[in-house]
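re: that chain from earlier
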Amino acid sequence: MADKKLPWYFLLLVILAGESVFILPFVLARVFRPTVLEVFELTNLELGLCFSVYGIVAMASYPFGGPLADKFPPRKLIAGALWMTGLGGFVYATYPSFTVLKILYGYWGLTTIFMFWAAMIKATRIWGGTKSQGKAFGFLDGGRGLVGALFGTLGVFIFSLFVVGEVSELTTEDARAAFSQVILVSSGIVMFVGILVWFFLKLDPETEKRVIIDKITTSQIKEVLRLPSVWLLMVIILSGYVGYKITDVFSLYAQDVMRYDQVQSAQVGTFLLYIRPVVGILIGILADRSRITLLLLLSFAISLVGALLYAMGFVLESMTIMFFISIFIVAAGVYGVRSLYFAVMQRGQIPLILTGTAVGIISLIGYTPDIFVGPSMGYLLDNSPGIEGHRHVFWMLSLFSFIGVIAAWYYYKLYGKKDLKSDNP
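^ sequence. v structure.
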């Protein structure tokens, strides 16, 4: 079957939606972690528990949201998820209690995973066709990184705009007033993106008929489970996602170890976000012209090297240049993995029409870091203040990067040299 090429704006909308939906639950906390801890009066462990509630709901949502993405057009699921996620931001801006905050994160787990996640992956795979999977997923993750960076930059600008006096003398009330503006603007933008998706993320009838299935049967689920690629991707995504979750710690490292203030530490978080589009675009250009499975293996190896620099204590307060070089190495590896782990689905002979079901099954294990990484990081940081706690966190990253190297090597051995099968359903 010949590919029917979808327009570029289709992928651009998927990219815009793909990061917008995670701005409220994750990107703001990544860029403004010290501020979030202060204004919500949370410890690192308590913030990690909020992420765990999200992760638990997400785990329950993956196996049901996957088949949903195979039954309904991506446009309807993605737009609805954006609107519902944006509404949660208005609750977030009231600085609710810890209990309500956990409920809110559970709600976000439902809106961003059950309705959204598999639909986004399937839409990207549809756009990529049989020849441009590396480009599709590389541009997806790189583009999402750029959107996240722009949100982060906008957030820092809005926050500093509403700060009264010196940042070093900022009171908790002043920080709350400024950060609430960041939340409200972000919520409005997320809901507006949902409107754009509803009107413009459309498939032609022929393509929609080819990629939508009326009913998922037990035999089709068994077909997916028999594929070695599905089981390997569970381990690969789990290992890679641990790395992505741990990048949340860089803005806090800037404050705790490098002694930066709140605005400077948020700028470090934003700098990290700008690395992601660079890596994603490079991967998108290279992946379809080289061995995509080998690039995945190399990305894990780079992540391991960067993690060891921090874990072994080479990055100290006085070493500003080393700090930013090490961030870049870790981020290059982590974001390289993220750009590739769904791009290798076609190489692993996973049928296009069952993409949603496969993503749901793979994600059930692959995204368990949503449950355990937040509390683990919080425990390590709270029980060993300063650089020691951060070193422990990076030893955890080193371990999972090594596991990723092993799994990616085996995936390369199985699928790296095989000819691609058609994506014909």
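The two ends are 9 Å apart (CA to CA).
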